[in-house]
Amino acid sequence: MVSITPPTALSDGAVVPDTPAAPGGRRGSARRHWVGWFFIFPFLVVFLAFLVAPLAYAAYLSLYTKGLATGTTFAGIDNYKRAFTDPSFLHGLWFVLKFSLVVIPLQVFVALAAALLLDEIVGRLARFARLIIFLPYAIPVVLGSLMWGFLYSPSFGPIEQISTLFNVQAPFLLSQGNIFYGLLNVVTWQWAGYYMIIIYAALQGIDTSIYEAARTDGASSKQIAFRIKIPMITPALALILVFALIGTLQFFVEPKVLGPIANGTVTPDFTPNIYAVTLALQYAQFNYASAISFSLGFVVFLAVAIFMFVTRKRGSLFT
Amino acid sequence: MRLTKTLSVVAPVVLALGLAACSGGGDDGGSGSTAAKPTNCTNKIVKEDAPRVLVWAWYPNMAKVVDNFNNQHTDVQVCWTNAGQGQDEYSKFQTAVSAKKGAPDVVMLEADQLVGFEIQDALVDLSPYGANDVKKNFSEGAWKDVSQGDKVYAAPIDGGPMALIYRTDVFAKYGITKPPATWAEYAADAAKVKAAGGPPFGDFASNVPAVTTALMIQKGATPFQYDLADKQNIGIKVDDQATKDVLNYWADLSTKKQIGKEDQFTTDYVAGMVGGKYATYVSAAWAPGYLTGAGVGNGSSKGKFAVAPLPQWDAASPVSVNWGGSAFAVTSQASDKAAAAKVALGLYADEASLTDGWKTQTIFPLNQSVLKSDEFINAKVDFFNGQTANKDIYIPAENAYKGAVYSPFTVYYYAQLQAQIVKLNAGQTTGDKAATDLQNALVTYAKSQGFTVK
């Protein structure tokens, strides 16, 4: 579709086609402008009050510094210089980057496999399986994490009970060496179903006559899956990869909830977001915490930009 | 189709509600609300028209204590909220202090947290409000912990003299006839129980850095030197030999698996306490109350606990140390400071509350009227199977406690120590290195906060 002049959302859905060249349409379009703003207004208020204003305030805070023994002083970009040399921030960043590199392919693989399978089969079982795979996403992250905390528990959890049956020492999945895998499991469990639904919806959107044509040409189910389905849903895959990347770099809830039972493995600087919260709410360093948050935002932006650059030819979504 | 229709009806209503909510919010913000009477009190207000003082506290028997106060006072009423225990509450209070609004009038703080808030001008000096009138009720050490020179920043309620809680059944099973009196004996007993296939002898938990700090002080460390009157200067010494020795000692027991490395107060830990998974518990006088509340000492673990004096490095010159114990401070955000001070000084100071507190062992009272009462001294403690624990263990420990000096960034210090304990437990560092790393981290932090490190 060629773009038409009025920028409001309303004109897109208007029944009467707008003719930009006609001078008579001017009045109507002005009124529509007004109506458009009216409809956007509630969103705009919320957007400005809860997104733009806090961001602006945090940006302002990040330019100052406050010490316990000194007052507040203007720091310029010193907080940012400090952030990118702060081992706590860099360690946290390294952890979430490592975690992203493992968890995202894993989640997408699980989601893709489940979606392709569900796309092949029909009937009650398929519907049931779809629901079950999606279910973990419907459970709030905090509750899901608490539940896994119980499952991992060395005194009450089933891992312990099964190990006792075989007379072996159960691994504590939140210990220093294991927490990476313990969290990997929780996150994949929670999010794979959601990504599965997105991929599944994309698969459902493909015209089935393409499959018929492929079968007529002698393509096997496997070939259809790999040569037709996956290439046709790359926009959806690119979308969930971006979602997953942003979400994982901001990793917070799962380690925060599992932290109290992890015997100190989840340190105050475990991930950049946890570090920012600790700085602000426990050490009273709101200024530096703001700088850490913006630094993380910058890294996320960079990571997504790199990702989009790398995938620019394959996914049509961002081109 | 039907769904779409319903949505089209519902949507404008929701929108309207949303707008109404927005405008409502705007009005509240604009009018600049004056100090409103706190209304969401956990307790019942006895005298409706008296001024209310909002209190944050987490004592397990707080409901009774508040009722006692409100029934005895007509001029002021306590409105109590439990804003979390320990660090949870401090985080909320710290945020309110930074935001300059939202703090309660009176806040429960442990002694090691006071100076961190004093330096931010978050607490009010109580001496003009009659604090010195109640000074006589407390020992010199207890009073020193809440004061800076002539200024008094909180009313002491309870202390935490430390001792060695142990399981009599585990000791009997592994042939330990008397509780260890020195740390050398403690280590020997730990090795003996481990060799016989017994449970961990104790626990080196990362989430109770205050305990490790107390044990460092017991060996002779002086982690901090700080005086609020000389605000800019601080002395930090956590890489001395005493600290290294204590960290090495516990790391050694932990890496040999003679003691556990689980965090305390978690469900798993409490279950372990009930099940006799730990032979000893190095803890404070208030611990039995919290353990009882969590279900320890009932059912199968009933009557199996006893207490002995804290093991010493040198039995000839014993040192007594303290863990926790809290006080009530008036915040500088309190609108009616006189009323708030009245609450801080009077709450948990009446006989009925104190008696309930010590009988349930949720507090070890610092009020001399209790400490010197025959009933308290000779009480046979249920949790310790009728042992006269106050007379034999806790009162001597409290009397020998000389007080400690805390830093204005206790929260940061504890977080760093905690991280080192995790590494020690994992065998990734040595006590010597942990102490040095800790020292460097604290000095760097102090300097970044504008202190001059002496």
Per CATH, the architecture of the largest domain in chain A is Orthogonal Bundle
**Strand adjacency order, main sheet of chain B:** 2-1-3-13-6
Low-confidence stretches of chain A: 1-25
CATH superfamily of the largest domain in chain A: MetI-like
Residue stretches of chain B low in confidence (pLDDT < 50, at least 5 long) are 1-35
Number of domains of chain A: 2
Helix content of chain A: 55-70%
Shape field of chain A: globular
Q: CATH homologous superfamily of the largest domain in chain B - what is it?
A: Periplasmic binding protein-like II
CATH class wording of the largest domain in chain A: Mainly Alpha
Could you report the average pLDDT of chain A, rounded to the nearest whole number?
86
The counted number of beta strands of chain B is 15
Number of domains of chain B: 2
Termini separation of chain A = 16 Å
- Overall geometric form of chain B: globular
* Strand and helix order of chain A: HHEEHHHHHHHHHHHH
Oligomer: heterodimer
Q: What gap, in angstroms, lies between the N and C termini of chain B? A: 76 Å
The profile of the biggest β sheet of chain B is:
5 strands, mixed
Strand order of the largest sheet of chain A: 1-2
Structure, explained:
The complex is a heterodimer of chains A (319) and B (454). Chain A starts with 8 loop residues before the first helix and ends in a 9-residue tail after the last helix. The model of chain A is unreliable at 1-25 (pLDDT under 50). With 319 residues, chain A is an all-alpha fold. In chain A, α4 runs antiparallel to α11 (234-249) and α11 packs antiparallel against α14. Chain A is built from 14 helices and 2 strands. Chain A has helices at residues 9-13, 25-61, 78-83, 87-120, 124-138, 141-152, 158-165, 179-204, 208-216, 221-232, 234-249, 253-258, 272-281, 286-310; strands at residues 64-66, 72-74. Chain B has 2 domains: 52-156 and 326-362, Periplasmic binding protein-like II (D-Maltodextrin-Binding Protein, domain 2), CATH 3.40.190; 162-322 and 382-453, Periplasmic binding protein-like II (D-Maltodextrin-Binding Protein, domain 2, 3-Layer(aba) Sandwich). In chain B, the strands form 5 sheets. Chain B has a 5-stranded mixed β-sheet, sandwiched between helices. A 3-stranded antiparallel β-sheet of chain B has the order 11-8-12. In chain B, β9 (224-226) and β10 form a beta hairpin. Chain B has 19 helices and 15 strands. Chain B: Keywords: Signal. Chain B: This is Sugar ABC transporter substrate-binding protein.
